[in-house]
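Please discuss these two lines.
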Amino acid sequence: MDLRDYIRVARKRWWLLLAAVLASAGIATLVTLRATPLYATSVTFFITTPNTGVSDAYQGGLFSQQRVRSYQSLLTSDRLARLVAQDRRLGLTADQVRTRISAQAMPETVLLRATVTDSSRERSQLVASALAHRFKIRVEQLETPPGREIPSVKVEVVAGPETADDPVSPRPVRNLGIATLLGLLAGLGAAVLRDLLDTTVKTPEGLQEVAGAPVIAGLPYDAEVRSGPLNVAGTGHSARTEALRQLRTNLRYVDVDKPVTMLVVTSAMPGEGKSSTACGLAMLCAENGQRVLIMDADLRRPRVADYLGLEGSVGLTTVLAGQASVDDVVQQYGERLFVLPSGFLPPNPSELLGSHLMAELLTDLRGRFDTIVVDCPPLLPVTDAAVVAARADGALLLARAGKTTSAQVATAVKALRAVDARLLGCVLNMLATKGADACYYYDEYAAKDGGSHRPRAGDEPPREVTVPAHSRRRVGSPR
C-alpha cells in the first residue's frame, strides 16, 4: 500500500480512527486523574581535585570526570540510602529512599545532578537536603588517603536543593498528546487491517475480476429508491436514473447477434436492490418505445407489486395453477409497461418455476412483448433464479458495493453456469456518492446548469412512464 491507499482507508474508516483516539484519550485522562502527583527536588554537585599547576589541573579534570561516573552509582547505592534513612524526619526505609533517588552525570563536565521524586513536596526537599549532606561526607571519607586530613576530591553543592512548582508527574498535556498519537496509529492500523481483511466487492474492476464477466453498469445509492419507483420519465436526471439509462444502452450491445428479449435480474444475496433495479430498467425500456413486461418470479418474497403500488394477490402463480389466464392478471403501468405480479405464495416455488407450464408461459409471453424483465430470488439461498435463467436469454447479476463478498459473487456465478445460463454481465449496485469511495456522475453538471439534458446519440425521444394511480389499470389483453 502506498500513501494514497492509507489516505483512502483513513477517509473511508474515519470513524474507526475517531473511536481509537477517543478511547485512548479517555484512558489517558482516567489514568492522569487517578495518578498521584509527584514532586521533584534536584541538587547539583561540583566535583573538583586540588591542584597546583596547569598540568595538574588538566590531569585533575580528567580524574574528576572519571570520579563523577563512579559517584553517579554512589548516589543510588544502598549504603548511602541507609545513611539518608537515618533521618527520622523522613519516615522512610532505606529501600524507599533508594527508589526515590535518580542521578545523572553531565557529559564532558564535572557536574553531577541528583533528583529526588516524592508525592510530598516537603519530604522531597528533606530527602534531597539529607542526600546532599550525606553524599558530601561519604565522598570525603572515601577520597581521604590514610595519614592525610585533606581529601583528594572535593564536593561542592552549586545548585539546589530546588523543588519545581508543578508536579513532574502526571503531565496532562503530554499524556493526552501521546495518547492521541497512539490512538491515531492504532486506529489507522485497525482500519488498514480491516480493509485488508474486507473481501467485499467495492469497485467495478474488483467485481469483474471475481465474476469473470463484464460489469455493465454501476448504480449509485439513492435513499428514495426503497420508498417507491424513481421518476424515470423524460425529465428524470438523477444519478441513478442516468446510470440505469447507461445500463439499458449497454444491454443493447452486449451481443448484437443474440439480442436479449427475456432478461433475468438476480443477485447473490437478499437486500442487494434487484427488485428496484428490475423495475427501473423496465420503466426505461418502456420509455424508449418498447412494449415491456416485468414479471415478478420471486415466489418467496415478492416485491414488485408493492413497489409499484399494484395488486399482487393474483399473478404468475394464479396462471400456473390454471385459475386464470395471462390476460386476466397482467396489469398495465403507464403506456407501454405491463406488470405480471407473483400472485399467491406456493409451497413449491422451484418446482413451479421449472415446470412445463412455466416454459409454455414464457414462450407465449415472448411473442407478446419486446422485452421481458424477470425479477428472480437471490441465487445463493434458493435455486429459483437459476431455473428461470436457464430458459431466459440471459441473466444480470447484481452485487451491492461494500456488502456482497467475493465468495458470494463467485458462488452465484457458478450457480448460473451449472445450468448453462447465459450471464450477460454484472451490475455494481448502491455505489457510494460521498466519502473516499464516492463515484462522480455526469448529471452533476446538469444539476449545476439548471437541469438541462443533452440527449445522447441513439436515444429516442423520451416518453412519460410514471403515471397517476387512477390511470393504472388491469387490461384484458397485453397486445
